[in-house]
Write a structure and sequence with these properties.
CATH architecture of the largest domain: Alpha-Beta Complex
Distance between the termini: 29 Å
Number of helices: 3
Order of helices and strands: EEEEEEEHEEEEHH
Radius of gyration: 19 Å
Shape: globular
Number of domains: 2
CATH class of the largest domain: Alpha Beta
CATH topology of the largest domain: Nucleoside Triphosphate Pyrophosphohydrolase
Number of strands: 11
Amino acid sequence: MVNPNNNTWTWLRSEEGPNLGLFKTRFDFLVNPRNQKTEKMVVLESPDAANVVAITADQNMVFVKQYRFGTREETIELPGGIVDPGEEHGFAAQRELREETGYGGKSWTYLGKVASNPVFQDSYIQHWMVTDVELLHITQQDDGEAVEAYLIPVEEVFKLWKKGYFQHPHTISGLLFYFSNHFSGWSNK
């Protein structure tokens, strides 16, 4: 294991950068421990996000299909979104599932968190799971969303995940948490 204390960058100061809506930029000035040169690093400040592995009683997983502007492609991904200011991430997971898919459930489990992109972001994705979900609500999508919800059998999700079908990193890591800790087929597939 790498000892981070042997390669510590020294923070000198931060400067506020442009506000990009979803992200605020920050410039951090740090001293590189290898060569003692000061580097100006860009950091994108953003709120955490939450996503949900939602499973019906008959072992189907809830997904959403939506267009992603960065790659200009439709993706299949777990429901989720930004944690609102002052909101607890577990509540955000429940809200996002309800708003995007109309599904809800009572048996929630926190799966863990992963850095969104530690290279230049300061946020985390909080992964949640809920079982025995049912269609309970009408969807409430934001103006910038056009989301379609649908179900995939859990066994099929596992096969698709192993083949690299899913492209959103939040979905990939959320499924990793689920399959490695809550899926009986993990060890023998």
